[in-house]
Design goal:
By secondary structure, this protein is of the alpha+beta class. 26% of the residues lie in helices and 39% in strands.
Length: 123
């Protein structure tokens, strides 16, 4: 259930918990009500690179846009090439460079019109 702009979900493959995905409100950046920041983590490195994270992000972002989001964004450390590829594959673009606890990260974002145009949705 989405509450106050937040949701925290498990990522499950078959019967195994393999990660989590969530929206959150960063303490150092204010967002308008229809903007969501999201993050994803896969616990076991052996699960990475198999499309699980990409599919989880795709499903959450689509779900958020169905519920009125205007923009979804997420950060990835400049050294985290796999996460950057996930965002880029799904049509997110770099909109800023931010500092997260001393780590430079790219802030990626996708708007509702860009998401629907890319996915072929008419909504």
């Amino acid at each position: 259930e989405l509450r106050d702009g937040r949701i925290d979900l498990a990522i499950q493959v078959e019967e195994s918990l393999v990660g989590d995905i969530q929206t959150y409100l960063p303490s150092d950046r204010l967002h308008p009500p229809a903007v969501f920041e999201m993050g994803v983590a896969l616990y076991d490195p052996a699960r990475r690179g198999k499309g699980v994270g990409t599919e989880a992000v795709r499903l959450l972002v689509g779900w958020l846009f169905e519920r009125g989001a205007e923009r979804v964004q997420g950060a990835a450390a400049m050294t985290n090439a796999p996460m950057r590829r996930v965002f880029e594959k799904l049509g997110f673009e770099v909109v800023d460079t931010i500092d997260v606890e001393g780590v430079p990260e790219h802030l990626y974002a996708v708007s509702r019109p860009d998401w629907h145009r890319r996915s072929g949705s008419t909504e």
